[in-house]
Structures are given as structure tokens and as C-alpha cells.
């Protein structure tokens, strides 16, 4: 389906693993990031061979939330477009656009515009959302977000890929109208987490799955269950699995891993071994969040770029 999509082909290949990075590219732990020098760091990441930059859809700072981090401060699509304009090839991944908080027609317009201006560079992760404060601020019902997600997903797919679709939805109605710009190809769309759905829905509808970090044995179980569900739904071709990992890269390259929030503190040599394990269980793309690092992001990106990326390079795009 995505044979001509350059970013997808550079990122995803069955049985292989590529690497990305989570914006912001800095160590700020649970406070607010400064967002300094992000374009320059993104350019360095691109030059080393990271295949994607991932951004979060967070509106409000909510200190009561389990993870009070505020994403990348700026709006996910506006700031993502800025980073696309400052780089040449690296993909923009959304992890993830919260469909119940974004009108699907407006989101379709925004995504189609980005895709028209920066062809084949958007990897669109979508979710049902979990931050109650954002839902309350927009006056959107939080408990029904699973139903809203399904309805918004259907609307989004129709308006993006059908000419003059007939749509009657709680989000609105379309008849004898069509979206512009109109795409001649599909944007890879990954579901993040379960989005309040079951595995069979995920297996039927997502072009791929983005799930939260877990130890390899447990991650292998959920990947296998998801891929089995896809086969049950008649989707037998390869569909990629992606995951984030918080990384505190130790100065000592031989330091063994110590679990931290959503990832590990580890030296680069053991990190390579861990990445090989994740590759072997079916992870196709893994992106590092450097928020909890003890070292400056530029140092970490340089070390990863020189010693780790050569072992997990971008795939050759054959066009």
C-alpha cells in the first residue's frame, strides 16, 4: 500500500528496526522544556540517520495529571510543520493526534495541506486521548471518547480519500462537496494505544500500531496478539509496530540497564543489545525520549548517531 511513500519505506521493513526521536530534544524531566535549538538538533538527527521526529498533542498544563509534562509546548501540527520546513527528509510522526478534540474535517484539511507541502513526510498517529483537563477545557465529553474516536476516524478517512463523499455525522454533514487539496495517496495512519477499542478493531483499521513501552517479553505478546487480530480481519500483509522508549544514556558505554519511567538508563553497548531484542520480537521503529536524561541532548544524539545508528540505519527507498 505504501510502496511509493518515502518516509514509510525508510522507517518500516518487516523484521527490521529503525530509530527516531521524541520532541523536545532536551532533558527537562517533569518540568517544562525550553524548546531551545530544536531545529538544529533535528537537523543533526536527520544527518545521523534518525528516520522520524515524534510530537505529542497536549493542550494544557495539568499538574494533577499522572504525567504533567506539556508536550512540546507548541501545537503539534503548527510546530511540526516548522520542523519539516527546517529539515529535508526526516518524517514527522504524531503520537498522537487526539481525534475527539479535533474536528475531523478541520484535521483532514490540515493533514492534507502538510502532505501537499511536504509530500510523504507525515506519519499520522491518532488516539482517543486521556487528559481530562483538555477535554473539559474544550467542553468535550471524556467518558464517550471511544465512540467519538470511531466516528471521527470514519469521517476523517472518507473526507481524505473519497471524492464528494456522502457524510452524515454528529460532527457535520457533507453532500456534493469535497476536500481540497485532494491527495492521490494515503497518509500512513497508526493507532496509538487501544484508543478505547478492541484488538479486532485495531487489526482491521490501523495501518500500523504504536503502543507504550514494555519489557520485551510482554511487548512480544501484545505484538503477536495484534498481528493475529489483523489476520483474522483479513489483513495479512505487513503492518508495522512502533514504540517509544525514555532513555538516559549513561556515560559508561558498558553500563547495564536500570529501569526508569517508561524506559531505561543504560550504556550504549547494552542499549544495542536491547534494541536487537526489540527488533527480534517484531518492533519496527523505536523512538527515544531524552526528557529524563542526565546529559545534554546534543551529546546523546551525537553518541547515538556515531555508535548506534549505523547498526539500525534507514532503509533504502527504492521509489
Overview of this structure, please?
It is built from 10 helices and 12 strands. By secondary structure, the protein is of the alpha/beta class. It has a domain at 6-98 and 122-129 and 193-309: TIM Barrel. The strands form 2 sheets. The chain has an 8-stranded parallel β-barrel with strand order 1-2-3-4-7-8-9-12, surrounded by 5 helices. It is globular. The mean pLDDT is 96. Keywords: Flavoprotein, FMN, Monooxygenase, Oxidoreductase. Its EC number is 1.-.-.-. This is TIGR03571 family LLM class oxidoreductase.
Write the layout of secondary structure elements.
Elements: H1 6-11, E1 18-22, H2 38-48, E2 52-55, H3 76-86, E3 91-98, H4 104-117, E4 122-127, H5 132-138, H6 145-161, E5 167-169, E6 172-174, E7 189-192, H7 199-205, E8 208-210, H8 216-232, E9 241-249, E10 258-260, E11 263-266, H9 268-280, E12 285-289, H10 297-307
Parallel strand pairs: 1-2, 1-12, 2-3, 3-4, 4-7, 7-8, 8-9, 9-11, 9-12
Antiparallel strand pairs: 5-6, 10-11
Helix pairs in contact: 2-10, 4-6, 7-8
